[in-house]
Amino acid sequence: MTLSFLPSLLLSLVVFFLLHTTTNGAKKSYVVYMGAQSHLFDASLQELDSVTNSHLDLLGSFVGSTVKAKDAIIYSYTRHINGFAAMLDEKEAAEIAKDPKVISVFPNLPRKLHTTRSWEFLGLTKNGQIPDSSAWKVGRLGAWPESRSFQDTGLGPVPAKWRGICQPGHNDGVRCNRKLIGVRYFNKGYAADLGTPLNESLNSARDLEGHGTHTLSTAGGNFVPHTSVLNIGNGTASGGSPRARVAAYKVCWPETEHGGCYDADIMAAC
């Protein structure tokens, strides 16, 4: 009789496990938005750390502990907005959304870059690909200090009030100078959605598409005459701001079927 009861017991345990898994669901990345920050640009490191700790305390109260919260959190937004990005299941996300300190909780969604047919018209791309003969490849793309738009000739030391960083990256990452004074990349939200470790080469702020470099050099680059298509494709033809200092923040990555610019990364760069 005991033996005949055993299969039924095992079946019940299996059904319970399946129901429990279905209810909680797999962990996905979410952004928890709590409004604007009360402090301004002059916040101390202690104040910023205090904001992060408050995020860990809140998250920990829903996932079981601050230790688990540290494992789940992707970003802590401490400067302009108040909030964080974290790996949560649907139930946890729904419960956090009910907290009176939280304004909204939303999935970390991908966005697609939009452009026109200009790249094809200029001969920089062909059928959506960059051929070896393209000016983008010949001209060495990217936010490099070697690019004429980002040369620092004649500029003095970086202002002491600058609090940005030149984030170390992959071997072919971007190096800062006295004009290109800040470089960062944000790909944790992208990695969280992919669910697999990123290739090391993606840990870099290098602009491999050209659009970001063109925009940055136009807004604050050194003046470089439009002498050829190479200059236009390389982003070196700028609006002429030789005394300006610039920083490059990268948030867009090789596109998945959904997109390559994720909300969590975009908010981290703001």
Automatic annotation (TrEMBL):
Gene3D superfamilies for this protein: Peptidase S8 propeptide/proteinase inhibitor I9 (3.30.70.80), Peptidase S8/S53 domain (3.40.50.200)
Q: Which residues form the signal peptide?
A: 1-25
Give Gene Ontology CC terms: extracellular region
Question: Which residues belong to any copy of the Inhibitor I9 domain?
Answer: 29-114
**For this UniProt entry, what is the primary localization, expressed as one broad class?**
secreted
An example GO biological process term is: proteolysis
Annotated protein name in UniProt: Subtilisin-like protease sbt5.3
Query: What is the species listed in this Swiss-Prot or TrEMBL entry?
Result: Quercus suber
In which family does this protein belong, per the annotation?
A: Belongs to the peptidase S8 family.
* Keywords linked to the UniProt accession: Hydrolase, Protease, Serine protease, Signal
Q: Which Pfam families match?
A: Inhibitor_I9
Single Gene Ontology MF annotation: serine-type endopeptidase activity
Output the PANTHER family linked to this UniProt entry: PROPROTEIN CONVERTASE SUBTILISIN/KEXIN
Where does this polypeptide localize? Secreted
